[in-house]
Amino acid sequence: MPLDPSLRDHVIASVEAGFIEQIAFTQELVRFRSLRGEEHAIQDFVFRALRERGFAMDRFAMDRAAIERHPGASKFSPEHSDAPIVVGIHRPKEESGRSLILQAHVDVVPAGPEDMWRHPPFEPAIEGDWMYGRGSGDMKTGHAANLFALDALKRIGLQPAATIYVQSVVEEESTGNGALMTHLRGYKADAVLIPEPEEEKLVRANAGVLWFEVEVRGHSVHVRDMGAGANAIDAAYRVVAALRRLEAAWNERRHAHEHFADDPHPINLNIGKIEGGDWASSVPAWCRLDCRIAIYPGVHAADAAREIEQAVSAFAREDRFFANNPPKVTFNGFFAEGYVLEPGSEAERVLANAHEAATGRALESFMSAAYLDTRVYALYDRVPALCYGPISQNIHGFDERVSLASVKRITTAMALFVAEWCGVESLSSRP
Ligand code: ZN
Questions:
Q1: Is residue 237 part of a domain?
Q2: What sign does the CA torsion over 379, 191, 409, 139 have?
């Protein structure tokens, strides 16, 4: 049933009334340096924030064995986070609406050299409409919006008339195992909304992602005898060239994939990190590359992995140096498949209404060729998984920032979405 116009106006005004507090809360989240493996303190903060609001709380660790048995598991490495997952549970007086998962991740990617930032990355400065900071866009404003959309209902004496799980996860930037863990814990709802920074649009289709390391071994000699040695760093360039050929071949296949055919280069291979050698006057005996590549929805991670291994070994067989000394490929993070949000779901219709009421514009959808946690709910719960959130700039780069006007619009849309999807009832009195 569409929302009553006077309720709609009350919700819009209530988001506005809480917005200063919402921004301050978001800044608190940005101040946590919640890099991979360092999310314990922020998860404690989120736990307290949810508990103070009256949610029933659940906090649990990753169950590595259970994750590894699941087809959606990504690979564990020594860097894998052991921070807990936090879930706040709202239960209505009477379960009359449709249930919902509101999810966000607290992990952020490294800031890089801090002197390249306009403001220190973990000190969230506001300039005009922009809030700066690592994680400001991806996705601490979305995380706060999950809470403040519900607060906006509470402020006007209402609560959702259906169960809501507010999930705060880790490992979104490296494996997606945090979201998978919530699934394995048994949480499931009629729809999920994840407010990643998506330019106020809905993600229609999304790429899967694989992470892998390539290790090249050389032969170390003194540089004066360089011709007798084999330089692992020089050799690594040839491996990169072979991987670029694979990337080009995968991009050629875009025409077979709806939502991807119009993007000239949807499959991006990133050589994200390189290390090797011991010092300047020895021919280096080792070099390691950390790589990330995308895959189309419907392509299984294991099949893509096999193709990567085969491409590297086929190249190695024809290379004079590598023939006897093949590079070693190890999958060490994301091993995740993409998804397509099938159009026409009731959840999408409700979000489109809410978006239009909040922004005055029709909801657009688009393809995003990067990993998203929504894949867990789309692929393994098979429920409408909506990824939709604020306008941002430079996520994963320097001077990451988010538009505050946009944050207010999407929080309003989210509150309206919850009100219509879950329905509302008068607020429970809580102890
Ligand atoms: Zn994100």
A1: yes
A2: negative
Same domain flag for 189 and 259 = no
Q: How far is the CA of 426 from the centre of ligand 1 (A)?
A: 33
428 CA to middle of ligand 1, Å? Answer: 33
Write the pLDDT tens digit of every residue in 319-348: 888 888 899 999 999 999 999 999 999 999
Dist. CA 197 → ligand 1 center (Å):
7
What does each C-alpha distance from 208 to 23, 74, 242, 314, 334 come to in angstroms?
32, 11, 21, 24, 8
Q: What is the rounded distance in angstroms from the CA atom of residue 185 to the CA atom of residue 180?
A: 9
Interhelix angle 19-31/141-155, rounded to 10 degrees, is 150
pLDDT single digits (tens) 403-420: 999 999 999 999 999 999
| pLDDT number for residue 64 | 98
Please tell me whether residues 52 and 149 are part of one structural domain: yes
Give the Cβ contact number of residue 37 at 10 Å: 16
Is the pTM above the cut of 0.90?
A: yes
For the chain, the domain total comes to 2
Could you list the residue range(s) of the whole structural domain that residue 171 is in?
Answer: 5-205+339-426
Instruction: Find the CATH number of the domain harbouring 231.
Output: 3.30.70.360
Task: Please tell me the distance between residue 372's alpha carbon and the centre of ligand 1 in angstroms.
Answer: 7
Is 189 found in the same domain as 40? yes
